[in-house]
Amino acid sequence: MVCTEKLPVPPLLGGAIQTYISGILPHVSQFHDVTVLGITDLSLPAQETINGVHYVRVPGKVFEIYRENVVRYVETNKFDLIHIFNRPRLVLPVRQAAPYAKITLSMHNDMFQPEKIDPEEAAAAIAEVSHIVTVSDYVGNVIRSLYPQASPKLRTIYSGVDSKQFLPGNHPKMQKIRNDIRRAHGLENKTVILFAGRLSRNKGVDKLVLALPELAKKFKDLALVIVGSSWFSENNITDYVAYVRALAKRMPVPVVTTGFVAPNEIQNWFAAADLFVCTSQWQEPLARVHYEAMAAGLPIVTTARGGNPEVIFANENGLIVENPENPSDFADKIAQILSDQSLMRGMGEKGRQLAVSMYNWERVASELLEVWEQAEKIKQAAVSEDQAADITIEPLKEDATEQLKPPTPKTNKEKVRSIKNSSASKTSDKTNAELKDNQRTTNREEDIAQQPEIQKNDLPPKQEQTNGHSKPFMITGNQQARNTTGEMYLNRKQTEEKKRAKYFTIASHTNPHR
Amino acid sequence: MKNIVIEPWLIDETTYEFFVPDYIIQLAEEVLKNYDLSVQNMQIVTTKSDKGGAIWKLETKSGPKSLKLLHRRPTRSLFSLGAQEYLAEVRKARVPPIVKTKDGKNYVEAGGKLWFVAEWIEPLTPVAKNLEGAKQLCYALGEFHRLSKGYVPPEQAEMASRLHKWPKNYEKMITKMDWFRNIAKWYAEMPASPPLLEVVDQFEEQARKGMERFRQSSYFEFVKQGTASWGLAHQDYGWSNGQMGANGIWIIDLDGVAFDLPIRDLRKLISGTMADLYKWDATWVREMILAYHEANPITPELYELLMIDLAMPNEFYKNIKEIVYEPEIFLNEQTAQLIQTIVETDQSKWPVLSEIENDWKGVE
């Protein structure tokens, strides 16, 4: 897994991508031998192995420097699959350094925009990757509109949150923390509105500050907490921070600003709050804070920008502000929630439920594993064309491996395999050349056979995206999660078993190019 | 000394002018060991304490030199140093040549920043504050832009380009008009707030109209021609960074150079000069543009963009944007007066712009 050049993994300094990687590692590393290539940090060694994951850290910060180091590392080490995070500009250099590896890409924001990547390079990168996973339909749709040929490779995998870290304020583990924070900041008996995010024009917390006077007329004892860095530091105060600070000083509602909060403490502020507001003005890919707020059992007010609305089910876990440039729109939606205690409580509970059942790292990881699995399959097909001799004995090898495996519950995967085996046995007395052809056919059959399985078992299923948000679909997905949490857990278990089976398959194919 | 990282430093009433922390002075001495120079005297001549930059004048046996601590990221500084080297050595432009280290490098890295030594050009005197002087500056600027074409940054350098940022800059200007309005509203009791509230709408309208014209302009075609094809803009050119030397105007302080449309520098020079005159003057603007054109020809399409950029509320924006930092101090009587002056100067701008609008029609 190739990280970006900006921040180190583990996410000592935060970062959505870094958090994502750390979230899925415990799960994906059970099935694959994973190396995480990222940037150096003074407090982290250049190489280490933790829980079976190899971390390799090279100088970065500046893209050009990082790219060079990534290439050098990939050239001298062999990988079956290379997953690149959010840097389409790394795809071609990585491809050159690793001509035989499968490359998959995940996109966390609009890095495919023409000002970020030359259109020619973008098209070539898309051709080189077998799949592109995106954190929201919005991100996928932007890529699709720029490069229609990417369409069949795109898949949305919503991110996740650690709902053991982010807990509601009334959870036994959090009650004291919540009370302490509120006491320390003069927030006792207040209704606390929380914003967490970068202090920037795009993120737009100024609009929330300007909504306060209107809210103060309707509600007593409000307070706003702004969690975000660069508030206090005297050097390097941006004009935006200065602006928000100047406004906050004059508001009829206390505004508490925390400055930078370490990623491992941020959950405390969520537990101390009563309502979460995301104020994105720009086409936000889909801000992580939504998942964190849900896990913390907070009702959410967010904006109709980018992927944000994709995780909000109106009146169930939050409300959407249609005109985020207008502070009154925020005031309206916030007032709607604050004036109905039972709605407010219900939204928080729904959010928590969604975070636990759906937006968890295990689900993210299993979807990504599935993508890798599909990528590997493409490779097998390609190999079967080139190296018939090796391939003909593969089904046997696979079966042999299978027999060494401890018995596992019968899975859909095995059903698929039995179809495959029967088709192989029918052709067992044919020539190598004919076998090759059949192998290809069975591979294709397997692909086809698997499709309904994917749709049946995995949430959210592979999506046919239309322009705009695929909201109607998403609601279906959520209803399923909502009503059948137990069933979903079972499905996930099955998926895991499937992965385990796959693990052996991949192992039997190590270095197919030899 | 190895692990020192240079940080911005605080100056207050207890520190003298051009105060530089001791550790940086020690670093400077270390840096100079990399040069084959016998330094007789070293004097700090300017600082950027809030960013962590400084300039010293060195007296050496081989004449006066400057030593600069560049506050920018090293990879960003590499871009500017490469440009300065290219302009001085390859294009023989009148920019200070870089003095190489003993091992032939352009710079020394110390404290996480780049340092370099360049020739101290003497004598240098500001050009006359009249139309002749303005034209000299414009001609020199055109020459600078023309000679900068063909620059290829070193491989390790960051790509510094503002070419694509024009729309964002304009958008930001429009957004910030709303900031100015909101701050004036919430600090209504301050002396400059009522006059600011009175005029902010009209300047916002100017910016919006400018944005509309900009969207119809050739800018988007210009961008397609590629980043490097336009050459570099200085980004901080004016009456002090262009000065008369023995054989013509020298251009100094190149640390901020970036690929851009060259007329950005020209626009800033014109609108700044008009602000200094307290009045827009068609003759000055025309002559300045012509002087520039002589050294680096302007196409009708580029001229149109220059007109659009001149029509933006640049001076209002530039002077008021400080408001966000300390509104209780900023919005004083003096600022109220300044707003008055800006509005008056702005009134003389529109007849001038409409007078010269069609000058380039049918050229070429």
Descriptive report:
The complex is a heterodimer of chains A (514) and B (364). By secondary structure, chain A is of the alpha/beta class. Chain A has helices at residues 16-28, 63-76, 91-97, 119-128, 137-146, 175-184, 205-218, 239-249, 266-272, 289-295, 327-338, 341-357, 361-386, 388-392, 394-404, 412-426, 432-457, 471-483, 485-508; strands spanning 35-39, 47-50, 53-58, 81-85, 102-107, 131-134, 154-156, 191-196, 222-227, 255-259, 275-277, 300-303, 318-321. Chain A has 3 domains: 16-156, Rossmann fold, CATH 3.40.50.2000; 175-357, 3-Layer(aba) Sandwich (Rossmann fold); 371-462 and 485-508, no CATH class. Chain A is 49% helix and 12% strand. In chain A, the strands form 3 sheets. A 6-stranded parallel beta sheet of chain A has the order 10-9-8-11-12-13, with helices on both faces. In chain A, strands 4-5-6-7 form a 4-stranded parallel beta sheet, with helices on both faces. In chain A, strand 6 (131-134), helix 5 and strand 7 (154-156) form a beta-alpha-beta unit. Chain A is globular and about 65 Å long. The two termini of chain A are 23 Å apart. Chain B is globular and about 60 Å long. The N and C termini of chain B lie far apart (60 Å). At the A-B interface, helix 8 of A face helix 4 of B. Chain B: Keywords: Capsid protein, Virion. Chain B: It comes from Geobacillus jurassicus. Chain B: It holds the Pfam family APH. Chain B: This is CotS family spore coat protein.
Order of helices and strands of chain B: HEEEHEEEHHHHEEEEHHHHHH
* Mean pLDDT score of chain A: 80
CATH superfamily of the largest domain in chain A: Glycogen Phosphorylase B
Q: Total strand count of chain B, please?
A: 10
The CATH superfamily of the largest domain in chain B bears the name: Aminoglycoside phosphotransferase (APH), C-terminal lobe
Largest sheet of chain A: 6 strands, parallel
Task: Using the coordinates above, name the CATH class of the largest domain in chain B.
Answer: Alpha Beta
- Per DSSP E runs of 2 or more residues, the count of β-strands of chain A stands at 13
**Percentage beta strand of chain A:** 5-15%
Determine Rg of chain B (CA atoms, Å).
Answer: 22 Å
Indicate the overall shape of chain B. globular
CATH class label of the largest domain in chain A: Alpha Beta
CA gyration radius of chain A, whole angstroms: 25 Å
CATH architectural label of the largest domain in chain B: Alpha-Beta Complex
CATH topology call of the largest domain in chain B: Aminoglycoside 3'-phosphotransferase, Chain: A, domain 2
Coarse structural class of chain B: alpha+beta
Number of domains of chain A: 3
Helix residue percentage of chain A? 40-55%
Q: Could you report the average pLDDT of chain B, rounded to the nearest whole number?
A: 95
> Low-confidence parts of chain B, pLDDT < 50 over ≥5 residues?
none
Q: How is the largest sheet of chain A built, in terms of strand order?
A: 10-9-8-11-12-13
